[in-house]
Design a protein that fits this description.
The radius of gyration is 20 Å and the shape is globular. Helix 1 runs parallel beside helix 5 and helix 8 runs antiparallel to helix 12. It contains 14 helices and no strands. The two termini are 30 Å apart. With 388 residues, it is mainly alpha-helical.
Length: 388
């Protein structure tokens, strides 16, 4: 006879989806309102750079600290606190009277978002297993897209009738309702309530399996970030307007969100690894298409394919890590995400150097090379660890 769980799996999954929505909001808020903030506070170039830097610093800090905390103390308190940080950060950006408030507000958004990205994925791997785990991780990723679309869509549709402060205030009220739900839900118990096993952590940190899969995320995260940050510059250099370039980024996000929705069904019927390999090949094809033409319709198609192709990597990798390091999945996720964020920094820096040298046209080929590296790493994983 199966012993019933002391928590409702569906209720906990909904809480994880709310947290992932908050992460999506945290990733897009600053970019959506930066022109408004620049005009309101007359930001200098240095002040703008400081604000933009505060976000990834916060995300890195959140990604680093969440794992050991959730393994030792459980998910609920940290998830609620992190959601509150994002909420307070959004309110700080909306209603700040002085520029000195903006930096801490943006850092709070990044810190809360960094925790939520890792924690929600770790939580889902804990409450599901087998193919259902991969499907639920993909469905969780859909809510990242929904959260990321919230602020730009609301601003675009309501800015003629309401102030930016009012729009962000309304979004914040909805966020507060989500936090109240999370407070009311019973979460799984901590995995390590008696203490934190440092020897086991040392074994995880030096695990070849973790390092190989984290290296995959190094390139995956870098490709996703560089595509978000540099596509407009690449398309602008090719003669397309800023509006067309921004629309292309929207199609990428739509492709990613739609693909993760499809994967919730697909992963229960097809090997997740097969889906991932096919997705990466399709992504490389999308970048090749982007490099060879500047026709808007084809650019939109290429960006949709790129977004859809990038959708499967994180769910599949997190599914493997959650299974192989079940006792300390949060810690394993922390390590993997920090390495992934290093990939963002490295590939963005490389692309910046190419842009500064007048070689932004090589951006798609750098992405193709990164995807080739991911495929090689998957081949190494498959040959060494797939059947262990």
């Amino acid at each position: 006879m199966t012993t019933p769980r002391p928590f409702n799996t569906t209720a906990v999954f909904i809480a994880a989806c709310i947290g992932m929505c908050f992460f999506g909001i945290s990733m897009i808020t600053l970019g959506s309102v930066l022109p408004w903030l620049s005009g309101r506070f007359e930001l200098s170039s240095g002040e703008t750079t400081g604000l933009v830097t505060s976000l990834p610093v916060g995300i890195m800090a959140g990604s680093l600290i969440f794992g050991p905390i959730v393994d030792r103390f459980g998910h609920k308190i940290l998830l609620v606190i992190s959601c509150l940080l994002v909420l307070l950060g959004v309110l700080g950006v909306a209603y700040a009277d002085t520029i000195t408030v903006l930096g801490p507000a943006v850092f709070a958004i990044g810190l809360g978002g960094g925790v939520l990205n890792g924690e929600t994925n770790a939580l889902v791997t804990e409450i599901y297993d087998g193919n259902r785990r991969n499907s639920r991780l993909s469905l969780l990723g859909v809510f990242y897209g929904l959260g990321a679309l919230t602020i730009p869509v609301m601003l675009r549709r309501l800015e003629q009738s309401f102030s930016v402060e009012a729009i962000l205030g309304g979004i914040s009220a909805a966020m507060a309702a989500g936090i109240i739900y999370c407070v009311a839900v019973r979460f799984p118990a901590p995995k390590q309530p008696q203490g934190f096993p440092l020897r086991e952590v040392g074994r995880i940190i030096t695990s070849p399996l973790l390092l190989i899969l984290s290296a995959v995320l190094f390139f995956q995260s870098g490709v996703e970030s560089v595509t978000n940050n540099w596509t407009t510059s690449f398309l602008g250099a090719g003669g397309l307007s800023e509006a067309t370039a921004l629309q292309a980024l929207t199609w990428m996000l739509i492709g990613l969100t739609a693909a993760r929705l499809v994967q919730t069904w697909l992963f229960s019927r097809v090997s997740p690894m097969s889906v991932l390999i096919a997705s990466l090949v399709a992504t490389a094809g999308g970048f090749c298409l982007l490099a060879l033409t500047s026709a808007p319709a084809i650019v939109y198609t290429a960006m949709t394919v790129i977004g859809a192709g990038l959708a499967s990597t994180f769910p599949v990798i997190f599914g493997i890590l959650g299974s192989r390091f079940a006792a300390l999945s949060g810690t394993a996720f922390s390590i993997a995400l920090v390495i992934a964020l290093c990939g963002q920094t490295a590939l963005n820096y490389t692309t910046g150097l190419l842009s500064g040298a007048g070689a932004i046209s090589t951006f798609p080929w750098l992405m193709v090379a990164s995807i080739a590296a991911m495929l090689l790493l998957f081949g190494l994983y498959y040959s060494r660890f797939k059947n262990r």
